[in-house]
Specification:
Largest sheet: 7 strands, mixed
Protein name: LmbE family protein
Helix content: 40-55%
Organism: bacterium (Candidatus Ratteibacteria) CG01_land_8_20_14_3_00_40_19
Number of strands: 7
InterPro entries: GlcNAc_PI_deacetylase-related, LmbE-like_dom_sf
CATH topology: Rossmann fold
GO molecular function: hydrolase activity, acting on carbon-nitrogen (but not peptide) bonds, in linear amides
Distance between the termini: 11 Å
CATH class: Alpha Beta
Radius of gyration: 17 Å
Number of helices: 8
Strand order of the largest sheet: 3-2-1-4-5-7-6
């Protein structure tokens, strides 16, 4: 199986679905981790250009722990739009990874980069199947199931499927800690400890399904994306 996870920023996947990606990997899947935004706005002190380079390196270091391919970005923070040039870039990410399953943000998440990422991923994953929709990559790929991962803090999100990640919580934390630039920023801007946030949310979803730690998902229920079996690990 080939699994593509598409987040808005470096660190979003680590917070919301890295345990599931690790479980997929253990089961033999090929993993692709994409971030559509370059993370260049998330700091009070580091300027945008060097911050983008720093966050790209952090994303690659995290993906390396999982032995995953790191893809993106396609736009700066807060400049991600649902337009034709951006869609073509996301289509190329999908055509490159040839996924059997995609994980991305909920359309109800808390900020524009997350919600636009969700819509771009849905649109591009269908458009990538059309051979007459030309991009830099010539190959078309089949339409595949898309799962929405949890929102930040789980607000306005009721999972329909859960993945027990108890075995992988320390692995998930190790990946998240690669994003050192965000520890100070998130504490100052949002008054949160990102490791504590991740563990509390994973613990809460675990409580809901009877395990110590879990991640929650919702399948995008539309024609052409439903399979007659469980796909999450």
């Amino acid at each position: 199986m080939r699994v593509l996870a598409v987040g808005a920023h470096p660190d979003d996947l680590e917070i919301l679905c890295a345990g599931t990606l690790a479980k997929f990997k253990k089961n033999g899947a090929k993993i692709f981790m994409a971030h559509l935004c370059d993370g260049n706005k998330g700091h009070f002190e580091i300027p945008a250009a060097p911050l983008a380079k720093m966050r790209d390196k952090e994303a690659k270091n995290s993906a390396k722990i999982l032995q995953a391919d790191c893809l993106g970005p396609v736009a700066p923070d807060l400049e991600l739009y649902r337009d034709k040039p951006t869609l073509k870039k996301v289509i190329d990410l999908i055509r490159k990874s040839k996924p059997d399953l995609i994980i991305t943000h909920s359309p109800d998440d808390y900020m524009c980069d997350h919600t636009v990422t969700s819509q771009l991923t849905l649109d591009a994953s269908f458009m990538a199947s059309l051979p007459n929709y030309k991009t830099k990559r010539a190959n078309d790929v089949p339409v595949c199931p898309v799962y929405f991962m949890d929102t930040v803090n789980g607000i306005n999100f009721q999972p329909t499927e859960y993945v027990d990640i108890t075995e992988f919580i320390k692995f998930k934390e190790k990946m998240l800690l690669c994003h050192l630039s965000q520890a100070k920023w998130l504490k100052e801007h949002d008054n949160l400890d990102y490791v504590e946030l991740m563990r509390k949310q994973s613990s809460f979803r675990g409580l809901q399904c009877g395990v110590q730690f879990a991640e929650g998902f919702k399948l995008h229920y539309v024609s052409g994306r439903i399979k007659p079996k469980r796909l999450l690990p």
